[in-house]
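Fill in residues.
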């Protein structure tokens, strides 16, 4: 944005002055524009210039690795993403336990012209947080800093995991507005990818970010919010880890609430016919079982006030998993009836697919058994929103996004 850039350059002197005055502390929000965006980008250009290759760089890099170890960096780590589809062997791996240490690490690596990639729980199917350069994981910066019950806001360090934040909110009668299917993400990774739950009218999670602290290589810690560097705030909420390390986040929450979940199956033709109607539910998702005409539809809506009786009995999971269990025992001698009885739906499906994953005929047979499982799993369930909205994705998987 040229207009903004000009403004930034114009007020640069003021920004530099603040830098000196504030030392390494968090850069407080200043009413005057300080052209952060430009200076961030210039910082990156400076780093890139360093990397343009000289023997000096190699010497610096070697020295940096040595001193990186003094900052807690370790070598020889191998990191893979959740689905084990991507792997990296970073030269140095940091797990700092305070934002101050993050700042020192970034400053040090920046001076040495070294790249650092920040990773969360490494769940992303494309392994976006992995790198063979240096990596930094915020897992030890995981404190729940404060809960403001009146404003319904929670402030956490970016390494706190979604499931820990949910538990911290429970005593206050608060919860997050929406959930992804799992709750293992670090809050940093959760917002940086703009994670989403279901529900056509519910925004992705980055829109719940009220304020955040971003630690940058060139400028140290910067506070961002709608009032404080708003354009950088908008970009940095979904920065994919490219603008700096998010160290602290304030999230807008909602009152804790129960949902009624309905699971039913439809044919593909019925889904096409009913799609608009389904979209009206607060949350709704489809799961089509390939090679069958079965589409699982799951809708969730707030529990109506007053008494609510389940319209259908709860699902009998043992009965529902019978088709998968019987197929598994029939197809392999290595699993006994006894073993199969102790396996849940996801374990049964994983074990079945693993028998012959590249045989289409086999996959078709497994999927037909899965379709039967879902037909028997139609029903209603009531629980707190965080327990309803998370769901079993079912084992290792390639995800195409
Ligand atoms: C089984 C499964 C189910 C899933 N279901 C859903 C779903 O329902 N909805 C959905 O939206 N997603 C879903 N995902 C994807 C997952 O939610 C996202 O990939 C996740 O939010 C990433 O969080 P993470 O902590 O693992 O981050 P990582 O994968 O480690 O990193 C993701 C990105 O965030 C950056 N990052 C991480 N921490 C920081 C930080 N502190 N500061 C700056 N940048 C940072 C990284 O550099 C990287 O670019 C699912 C993934 C799996 C494996």
């Amino acid at each position: 944005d040229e207009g903004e850039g000009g403004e930034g350059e114009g007020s640069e002197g003021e920004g530099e002055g603040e830098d000196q005055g504030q030392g390494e502390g968090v850069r407080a929000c200043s009413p005057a524009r300080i052209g952060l965006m430009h200076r961030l980008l210039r910082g990156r250009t400076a780093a890139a210039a360093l990397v343009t290759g000289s023997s000096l760089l190699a010497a610096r890099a070697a020295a940096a690795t040595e001193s990186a170890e003094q900052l807690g960096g370790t070598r020889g780590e191998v990191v893979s993403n959740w689905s084990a589809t991507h792997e990296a062997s970073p030269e140095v791996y940091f797990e700092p336990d305070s934002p101050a240490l993050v700042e020192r690490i970034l400053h040090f690596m920046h001076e040495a012209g070294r790249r650092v990639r920040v990773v969360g729980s490494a769940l992303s199917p494309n392994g976006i947080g992995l790198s063979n350069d240096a990596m930094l994981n915020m897992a030890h910066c995981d404190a729940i800093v404060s809960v403001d019950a009146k404003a319904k806001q929670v402030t956490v360090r970016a390494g706190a995991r979604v499931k820990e934040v949910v538990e911290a909110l429970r005593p206050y009668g608060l919860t997050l507005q929406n959930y992804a299917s799992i709750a293992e993400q670090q809050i940093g990774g959760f917002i940086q990818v703009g994670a989403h739950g279901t529900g056509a009218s519910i925004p992705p999670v980055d829109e719940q970010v009220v304020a955040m602290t971003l630690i940058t290589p060139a400028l140290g810690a910067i506070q961002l919010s709608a009032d404080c560097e708003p354009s950088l705030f908008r970009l940095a909420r979904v920065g994919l880890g490219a603008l700096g390390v998010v160290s602290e986040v304030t999230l807008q929450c909602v009152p804790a609430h129960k949902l009624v979940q309905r699971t039913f199956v439809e044919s593909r033709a019925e889904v096409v016919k009913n799609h608009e109607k389904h979209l009206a539910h607060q949350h709704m998702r489809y799961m089509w079982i390939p090679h069958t005409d079965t589409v699982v539809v799951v809708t969730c809506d707030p529990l109506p006030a007053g008494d609510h009786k389940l319209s259908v009995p709860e699902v009998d999971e043992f009965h529902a998993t019978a088709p998968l269990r019987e197929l598994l025992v029939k197809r392999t001698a290595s699993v006994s009836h006894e073993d199969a009885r102790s396996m849940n739906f996801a374990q049964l499906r994983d074990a079945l697919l693993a028998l012959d994953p590249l045989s289409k005929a086999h996959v078709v047979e497994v999927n037909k058994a899965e379709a039967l499982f879902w037909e028997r799993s139609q029903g209603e369930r009531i629980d707190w929103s965080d327990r309803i909205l998370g769901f079993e994705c079912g084992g290792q998987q390639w995800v195409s996004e």
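The chain is about 35% helix and 20% strand.
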